[in-house]
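Final report, results section. Input specification for complex C-07:
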Amino acid sequence: MIVCAKQIQDPEAPPATFKVDPAANKVIPPAGVEPVISPFDEQAEEAALRIKDAQGGTIKVISMGLEMKRTVVLKSLSMGADELYLIEDPALAGLASFSTAYALAAAIKKIGEFDVIFCGRQAADWDAGQVGSGIAEILGIPSVTVAKKVDAVDGRIRVERVVADGYEVIEVETPCLITVSNELGEPRYPTMKGIMAAKKKPTTVWSAQDIGVDPSKLQARTKLLKLFVEERVGKCEMMEGETIEEAAANLALRLREVKVI
Amino acid sequence: MAENKGVVILAETLDGKLSPAALELLGGGRGLADELGEELSAVIMGSGIAGLAQDAIAYGADRVYTVDDPLLKDYQTETYVPVMEKVVKEASPNIVLMGQTAIGRDLVPRLAFRLEAGASMDCIRLEIDPETKLLKQTRAVYGGNALATYVSEVKPQMATVRAKVMDALPRDDSRKGEVVTIDAGLDPSKIRTKFIEKVKEEVVGIKLEDADVVVSGGRGMGDAEGFKELEKLAGVLRAAVGSSRPPCDQGWVPASMQVGLTGKIVSPTLYIAVGISGAAQHISGMSGSKNIVAINKDAEANIFKVAHYGVVGDWKKILPPFTEKVKELLG
Ligand SMILES: Cc1cc2nc3c(=O)[nH]c(=O)nc-3n(C[C@H](O)[C@H](O)[C@H](O)COP(=O)(O)OP(=O)(O)OC[C@H]3O[C@@H](n4cnc5c(N)ncnc54)[C@H](O)[C@@H]3O)c2cc1C
Ligand SMILES: Nc1ncnc2c1ncn2[C@@H]1O[C@H](COP(=O)(O)O)[C@@H](O)[C@H]1O
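Structure output:
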């Protein structure tokens, strides 16, 4: 099994710490906030680990980026994955979905045989939600997206896929690609034993050349024109009262007054 | 591909009719097509759907491609992508739009990669640039902390559209349009997935997406028991009950109640957020609400930045007298 995991700026950092540099169309990383593995990617690994727990197998994690804090990416090994592949090349940093999928697909081809690739439903920085399907298309394998449960049954993969009013059960042949959503449940915490074991597990670092990708040929299909924060206008009217119960009643009265109720 | 012209939308069906998302796309697509002076085509696929073509025309389409095949009864990536690819190649459109639904979010990226085109998912604004005539696609990024506007470098320009971003047009049966029947041409032996079943998680009461009033609870509710108090208020207001993500993750409430970036998008007349801090990912799903009320014990909570009315304090002390007063006023 292969898991694609991206290191990102912590998406649950306090909203007040979020800043963009509009001139550069870039997000300014908040000082003192540590990067994390994109949460859905941890869930993707959890899905793989559950299959490994039940049936065995090996898990290889691929992460592409720059300055990947070893503590963050090593977490995937501490959780129970077997091998880590880091693609670190300035020429491949911050690529759009199209090129990211090409580079990851190239790395996966280099790794060789696999049964299932797990991705997150979307990376919690740009929330693009495209790379998983892209890798599957490039590799020519079937994909099932937004899974909340994944089981290996008689050589096929049985997926519960989240839809608006419930879920669909889909069976897919291997090799295939599955994207995972938070409905899968909490990813496990690394144990002390896991953390110790991780130190002995192999980590491979690749450049663009190593995976046979010519960055100049990776042409983005979309162009970012503008990145901005929309100012919220309007002010919150705070309800007061002698007591909190009175403030609560005043809220009802106010809503009535403005004919909202 | 020949010259790219026209707007193509996928009109999804629901319970044998065009879905609300389909009607919104027809309305919004009509506007974009008119601005460009091009045609609007709708694609309807499924099993036994041919009769819906006239509906799509009445709601704005100039042309409807129908693909009727038993293999298209349930959505599967393996069947819908090749059919959509076939239709798009035939139509050679300038723009392709779908809803940000369970179908659109799965189909669009895969189709974009197949066509070597680009796509923007979950757009909240789509505009034609007056100079370049290109489609400017604006979407939330970083969990809704920021917005980003993109243009496609390749045609067709593809995007999915968030629910309620576009407005449906009133039905007009005097509209005329052309219906083109397309053969799915699927080879069953090439389909590598099998649809086993759909499991519906029944919601009791009013559906979140349709509700005019939504009462939502967050981690601050403490446990499943806390939501009982919200249900009382919802009963009085005839509201749907929603939730931020933690109560779903904790199993206090079903996952289908989640409001936000990766949950339901709601825009009711009144949204009451109780014990919700106001993370960007939550606000993303409810900021379109006309009146927002926040009840939170932390006066600094981010939710008060989007709320119109607020009460600072423990919900356990606030909800009962509030519910009582609302009942009295409505009674
Ligand atoms: C990729 C991604 C996608 C996500 N998608 C979503 C999504 O779709 N929807 C979503 O909601 N979240 C989503 N999240 C999670 C989001 O980032 C926040 O973690 C979440 O919204 C926080 O929920 P909360 O406000 O209920 O909890 P908290 O942030 O823990 O806030 C609890 C609030 O309750 C208040 N409180 C506590 N006790 C009381 C009391 N007795 N009375 C009154 N107030 C009280 C506290 O002051 C606090 O403000 C997503 C996260 C990621 C990374
Ligand atoms: N740089 C990356 N390194 C590893 N995996 C990635 C990277 N970018 C995207 N992915 C994978 O693709 C998924 C979807 O990403 P995106 O389409 O960018 O939202 C993520 O959840 C990851 O599983």
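The radius of gyration of chain A is 22 Å. The pocket of flavin-adenine dinucleotide (ligand 1) is lined by residues A 11-12, 39, 124; B 143, 218-220, 244-246, 258-263, 275-277, 279, 281-282, 285, 296-298, 301, 314-316 (CB under 6 Å). This concludes the modelling results for the funded period.
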